[in-house]
Amino acid sequence: MTVVLNDQTVIENCPLPGIAPEGPIALQYHGDDLEFTNIFIKEF
Hints:
It is a single chain. By secondary structure, the chain is mostly beta strands. It has one domain. It is built from no helices and 2 strands. It has a two-stranded antiparallel ribbon with strand order 1-2. A hairpin with a 2-residue loop joins strand 1 (3-5) and strand 2. The mean pLDDT is 85.
């Protein structure tokens, strides 16, 4: 997994043990109010 936040790579090529390479996605939060906008998922 690679994460780019505000045009800056914050995580690069991190393996996710126990997570299937294909299937549904999930978004995690920690109980505070929040909104998700402009979420893009691309295969590299």
